[in-house]
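A further point concerns the way the authors explain their paired sequence and structure data. For illustration, here is how one protein appears when written out as sequence plus structure tokens:
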Amino acid sequence: MTATLTERGTHREQREHVARLHSYLTRYELVTWTSGNVSERVPGEDLFVIKGSGVEYDELTWEGITVCDLDGNPVDGVKKPSSDTDAHAYVYRHKPEVNGQVHTHSPYATAWAARAEEIPCVLTAMADEFGGAIPVGPFALIGDDSIGRGIVETLAGSKSPAVLMRNHGVFTVGPSGKAAVKAAVMTEDVARTVHFSRQLGEPLPIDQSDVDRLYARYQNVYGQ
């Protein structure tokens, strides 16, 4: 995959929006150096926009966001797209309800991924956001669509918008880029809290019937 080295300025407003979304990743300390990325599907087109590979967050503007087709090929922009582009493309092709994705190596959640251990649903906040445990996906190498395949397979039949890819990190999906960012923030928050709880003893699980009720309330009633 090579960059087009052509900047036509298409989808500039959405590229600016996605560039701004990356500020949440640094604000909540979900990434280190240039790792991690946010992508978002372009409405009504077989395209998505994603952070350029190795672009520093402090320097990230709309020009650091590349437009790609759903096969992961860059179609506008001078920055080579993220090394996770093929994974994002695979998810967009196979999950049409997904319009935003995020990848982080946030420390507590990635520690669970390193152990290949799902985060159990022991907090009402987890029931609200994830509808159950945060699952673990398989080990997959970076550079092709293997990670995307693992994400799609792991989230099949799950309410969770997040998956912990074994020995790698966090991948989240959502109906928008911002929703996927929120899921990434919440993943790290609950990963940290459940880790703290386990230092004191074994956390108590929540009955699935209560999880289902909490999830339904939060998804359908909570907020304005």
